[in-house]
Amino acid sequence: MANTVIGSSIVIDGEISGDEDLVIQGTVKGKISLKESLYVEGSGVVEADIETQNVEIAGRVTGNIVASDKVELKTDCRVVGDIKAPRILIADGASFKGNVDMDMKER
Amino acid sequence: MATGETGIIGKGIVIKGNLTGGGDLVIEGRVEGQIALKNHLTIESTGKVQADIRAEELTINGEASGNIDASTRVAINASAKVAGDIKAPRIVIEDGAVFNGSIEMDVRLPDDI
Amino acid sequence: MATPKELSGSNDVNNTVVGPSILISGRLTGDEDLTVRGRVEGELTLSRTLIVEPSGVVKANVAVRNAIVSGVVVGNINATESVELTREGRMVGDIHAPRVIIVDGASFRGRVDMGDVEPGRLPSQRPVVARPAAPVTRPSTAPARPSAPPARPTTPPPARPTAPVATTRPAPAPTVTMPARPASKPLPPPPPPRVEPRPVAPPVEPASAEPPTPFALGAGAKKKVVVKKKTR
């Protein structure tokens, strides 16, 4: 699987969509919609609404997250926004501000 | 093409006017005006052409300015300096060549562009 | 997966890849190489190299250092160093770069502007700028060698009289020719082959005001010249 990597010096202002895993080490502003997994690494900065299957966040995310499977906030991450997903993991050391909604009744 | 007949315009020759012909032609000198050839035209590194050129195939090692219309292929080699608009199904520009102008080839793009 | 440390590590590990199913639309900027296997639309600015692989589609205005196009680009590319269209490359748009390479098999429609790579290399095109250096001595007829521009005033003249005169013509006049042409030439250059208008008639008129007699062919600007053939 050819992973998509947005390197640490890259800044994207717009929309990213696709059917494969996406790794963000740089900055993305706008909107992200994926059918697979999103990884926001330690250096990654996302100011975007996110719609995906899985998200793993070690960096910073500002925006609302909707995941069809799982959201994982890792140590040292900083997330501001609402999260909606059937499974949500928040690690010790993660910082998070926003609402959590695990009730996926519409699905 | 493989007629084996090749005309040469030598280094010291200057032609002003229209140049037409059937065989291959090599220009080592200077031509100003218009060129219409049925076959292969080569402009050698000493050659200098200021002309609109029509040919089947064109190889440029020297200088050319003017519009070019080739029915098969245009090769702009590393030593060439070309200015003008080029129309041909195949166009090659080597590294080192200098070209300013427009290029028109058939570009088949994906449908969703 | 490597965890690259900030910008410093952007040398090898840290190349950005846009996978085949990914679509990015918007503005993308960065200081590292970018490989596109999917699709990027909008605006793309990199201080390094853009690689568009065969599956990649870039529909954007692109400003980069280098671009290597094996996929599809629709839009203009402005490169500070080079643009290469490889065998599978397809592009519609304008290219502005000092080095442009189009390989056999690539297809392209648009303008190419390599700028003033060598000042004054095409006397017919930028005569005014090129001239001041050696207005009289430099015969604009001289075959411009790609080498150093400064060398031109000196090299070409000797080359012309000797070779041609010896082979094609009786000796007498050649030395007259050289001075004669530069003298009559400096005026005409502006009119000759402007690149724009396609149906340009041979813009030779001004020169023929004082036809360079030594070369008989040069005199009759209008008559057709039948190329002499010789068998190789």
Automatic annotation (TrEMBL), chain A:
It holds the Pfam family Bactofilin. Belongs to the bactofilin family. This is Polymer-forming cytoskeletal protein. The lineage of its organism: Bacteria, Pseudomonadati, Myxococcota, Myxococcia, Myxococcales.
From TrEMBL, chain B:
Belongs to the bactofilin family. It comes from Myxococcus llanfairpwllgwyngyllgogerychwyrndrobwllllantysiliogogogochensis. Signal peptide: none annotated. It holds the Pfam family Bactofilin. Transmembrane segments: none annotated. InterPro entries: BacA/B (IPR007607). This is Bactofilin BacN.
